[in-house]
Structure prediction request, 417 residues.
Amino acid sequence: MFQQKEHLKSHLQAHHANRQVFHCQECGKQYSTQLGYRRHLLAAHTPAPSATLSGELRCQEGAPTLLEQIGSHGDRPPPPTEGAAVRERKYSCERCDRRFYTRKDVRRHAVVHTGRRDFLCPRCAQRFGRRDHLTRHLKKSHAQEAALAAPAATPAPAAPGPVKEELSPVPCSMGTSKEPAENFPMDMYGGYPLQGMSSPGMGHHHQSLMQGSLSTAMGRQMTGQSPHHHLPQTQQQQQPYMTRYQHGSTSYPRTDMESFLMDLQSGLPPHMTAASSSTSSSPQREVLSEAQGGPGAGDPQLLSRSPALSSAELSCAANMDLGPLLGFLPFGLPPYSAHMSMGGLVMGYPSTSTSTVPPSSSSPLPSQGPGGLTFLQPPQPHAPQGPGAHNQLPQGFSHLGMSTSPSLPRYYQAFQQ
DNA sequence: GCTTGCCTCGAGTCTTGA
DNA sequence: TCAAGACTCGAGGCAAGC
Prediction:
């Protein structure tokens, strides 16, 4: 909530489709916010007033400041130093022109093109392309929760469990070189079961179609669980993310995303259906497929087959936005809105087996709605069920389920009002 | 050579106060 | 209305350990 009307106004301005784009005349960079633009000016184009770090240390190549040198020459090898061997960026990415010092860096960089985000936060379903990013996220965003949950001694779901499947064997060779990554191998859709219906939300693998920042932004919005998880959520959820990330190297192919969202509204894209129904290249997916309707449906043990897939991950991964599907659209928004399609009302797709999991199971899931759908329910009195009860729920769910939490999605707050 | 994780920087967003 | 600070994430560099 914004405490002042002006704050809301300025916030909304950031999402306005026709909002101003700040264009740096000197280097051509664009910024969506004045703040970003001004920061860029300060960092890159402001002559130093004094003999500070950003002042006297002039770039030998003409850049005004050291900071600009860092920014503008980041892709160039460092200048040779006296007596030191010249380091070369010998390894180049096949999909872009970036060069790196080591092959490892190239591989890691490939995530930028594949958009793969294989590391799922078990607490908020946010996904990351790198393990250390997840680690950092857990430390910064969930350290407090972890501390609170620590005495409960149920650390399993909280472990930074990668939902990582085998990395694509063609990280840099798929598609045409030097082109944006749009042609992903089929397997890339398959990190999670698609369950016949899906949304970009809650970390399902359509995010793999997304690149860079938008992917992350989508993740934030779609999860309904921002990394600023004490901050309002639907502010982000309602944002026209396409316009938020309309420039920059990690900007998003708008048409791709919109068509994807339209696909979601009209039904499952054929390739998604195929991906969910016919391909089971990963053990996890196979397990899930079985658990959700396959031959092994109803087998409570299925969910425990994959050590890399906790129940929390299951619930998180399959969570999806129900708004467009159920016609529940808070705030009177139209049936489909790119802004709203990432709404905060999320539901999971537990396998049928989850209903048979006894309460004492180590892999509890949110309460189920009819038809086997699991709802992350609108606020209900959340009575603790004894010590450690909090940990009986997947962290992401329990977190969302806290009706009094500041991070409560606005949908829920709307319910409360 | 590979994996892992830390450090750092740039950028976007949110919040708060003048 | 504007500015500033805080927060978070993406990404590259790099060291340590195997």
In short: The longest helix of chain A spans residues 254-266. Confidence is low (pLDDT under 50) at residues 13-19, 48-85, 151-417 of chain A. Residues 2-4, 7, 11, 14, 31-33, 35-36, 39-40, 43, 67, 70-71, 74, 102-104, 130-132, 135-136, 213, 217, 226, 228, 231-232, 235-236, 239, 244-245, 248 of chain A lie near DNA strand B (CB under 10 Å from a C1').
